[in-house]
Amino acid sequence: MTIGINHRGATQYWVSDPSNEVSFGFTLRHSRMRDVLDALIQNSATGCNFYDTPAPRWASSIHRLRKIGLDIETVREKHGGDYPGYHARYVLHSRVMCCPKGDPQ
Questions:
Q1: Contact of 93 with 100, CB cutoff 8 Å
Q2: Phi/psi of residue 60, nearest 5 degrees
């Protein structure tokens, strides 16, 4: 569940540096990108992949979040099964907080 949704369906996020000073903020309307970011925030310690957290177009959402300025690492993981190969696990390294009223305080 996402907190920080205002009455227009947009969510305000703030990114802080290691000293907890706010670096920048951005707003996302309800979208796949917001769903992916919320999953990354909730699973910041272990990261996410599309097997654990199904969402369409993970790579596209990650690319767009990186363009906003978020630090997201891609870890290649090997998998077996009928079609063995690799898949990506994404780990959010930026400190991102969701603020209901747009104020990072």
A1: no
A2: -65, -45
- For tokens 């969402």, the residue is 55
β-strands 95-99, 85-92: how paired?
Answer: unpaired
Helices assigned H by DSSP within 9-69: 32-42, 58-68
Cβ-based neighbour number of residue 9 at 10 Å: 11
Query: What token pair was written down for 29?
Result: 């309307």
Q: Are 96 and 102 in contact (CB under 8 A)?
A: no
Q: pLDDT (tens digit, 9 = 90+) per residue, 42-60? A: 998 889 888 787 777 889 9
Residue 12: count of CB within 10 angstroms of its CB: 19
